[in-house]
Design brief:
The complex is a heterodimer of chains A (160) and B (197).
Chain A (H helix, E strand, L loop, with lengths): L11 E6 L7 H12 L3 E4 L6 H10 L4 E5 L3 H4 L2 H10 L7 E5 L1 H5 L3 H4 L4 E2 L6 H9 L9 H17 L1
Parallel strand pairs in A: 1-2, 1-3, 3-4, 4-5
Chain B lengths: L4 E5 L3 H11 L5 E4 L7 H14 L4 E4 L16 E3 L5 H6 L1 H9 L2 E4 L1 H5 L1 H8 L5 H11 L2 E6 L7 H11 L3 E5 L3 H21 L1
Parallel strand pairs in B: 1-2, 1-3, 3-4, 5-6, 6-7
Classes of the chains: A alpha/beta (160), B alpha/beta (197).
């Protein structure tokens, strides 16, 4: 019997189309490729408000939000999501990946709307998500803290 | 009113012509092929190339359909109707948004006539099975927008229903929202042209 290696989870990614955007195809493809690459994907669907994205990221301990916009007008709404992340003090904890047709034509928009990065297509999304979240796991307990807790427990057990 | 030109997507040809005939009969619009929508960069280039040949201030009846459409008035003496796309222009933002949040795919009259070109040639769905997967996965309903300028193309709508295995709902729309956007655009263009004089 062959045992299939279960890929280690790469963490949780929140994805959705920005407020006022209903072009779901690209987002769905990104979701499929992320799942295949070992991410847990929470797909919030179309027309997602900035606070909903951030609430979902906090609730699911996600280190990254992937937001999609098809047109220039709707891409501008990503700025509100950027502000929401920053205002809650999560700038260095939650990365913002942006995507959609308009970013392919106007790569300068990525930084204009406050994105941390983009990918040329859905296939490249997992690599982008990994790159953006590399080395960061702000919602998990840092190793030194785990070591300290373990030592405290051990010391307590020894005194019993 | 100052002399002006109009550049418009052919998807709204009949509707725009009907409005212009009544409200601005002296203006002769230039219509660009609506299939350019499938190639945003080419659409942008074509609109800008057409604008370079215009000698009059120009109203652009387009949505946010090209990558730099939003600030085209910075490069030419022109104004654009403020809207997301042709559906938004025709139906008005509130109704368009309601249909979009209900995941409706809109068939405007001109695109309905050209639906095979749109789906089979431009989007490449030569196989109806793939087209059905695409449509069922991304949309919940198909809506034909009847602007009352041509008879409802019932046999074409039946072909569309068969192709996507989804019913087409027919919804009537007046030209009111589009008329309002054109008038608003004309006023903006007058101000822009005045500033350039």
């Amino acid at each position: 019997m062959h045992e299939q290696a279960v890929p280690q989870s790469k963490g949780t990614a929140i994805i959705g189309n920005v407020e006022d955007d209903y072009h779901s195809l690209g987002r769905k493809l990104v979701g499929i490729f992320l799942l295949t690459a070992g991410w847990k994907v929470v797909d919030l669907g179309n027309d997602v408000a900035p606070a909903t994205f951030v609430d979902a990221a906090i609730e699911n301990k996600a280190r990254i939000i992937g937001v999609s916009a098809m047109m220039f007008t709707t891409a501008q709404n990503i700025l509100s999501l950027r502000k929401e992340i920053d205002q809650r003090g999560l700038k260095n904890k939650i990365k913002l990946a942006v995507g959609g047709a308009v970013f392919k034509i106007r790569p300068d928009l990525v930084s204009e709307v406050g994105g941390d990065g983009t990918a040329a297509n859905a296939i490249d999304a997992p690599a982008l998500f990994e790159k953006l979240t590399e080395g960061s796991n702000p919602f998990s307990t840092p190793p030194e803290r785990i070591k300290a807790i373990a030592e405290t427990i051990r010391a307590r057990e020894n005194t019993l | 009113m100052i002399p002006i030109s109009i550049i418009c997507c052919s998807v709204l040809r009949r509707e725009v012509q009907a409005i212009l005939c009544q409200d601005f009969p002296h203006v002769i619009p230039e219509f660009l092929d609506s299939m350019l929508h499938m190639h945003p960069t080419l659409l942008q280039e074509t609109v800008e190339q057409t604008l370079t040949q215009e000698i009059l201030p120009t109203l652009i009846i387009y949505g946010d359909c090209g990558p730099t459409m939003h600030d085209i008035d910075k490069r030419f003496v022109c104004a654009r109707t403020s809207s997301l796309n042709c559906g938004d222009l025709l139906l008005g933002h509130a109704r368009y948004q309601k249909l979009q949040s209900g995941l409706a795919f809109l068939f405007l009259p001109e695109w309905t006539e050209r639906w095979r070109e749109v789906f089979q040639i431009e989007l490449g769905f030569s196989n109806p099975e793939l087209a059905r997967i695409f449509m069922h996965d991304t949309r919940k309903s198909l809506v034909y927008v009847d602007t009352g300028l041509i008879p409802v193309p019932r046999s074409t709508l039946r072909e569309i229903e068969d192709y996507f295995a989804m019913p087409v709902e027919i919804q009537s729309a007046t030209l009111g929202p589009l008329r309002a956007k054109i008038h608003e655009g004309m006023q903006l263009l007058e101000r822009i042209a005045h500033d350039h004089l």
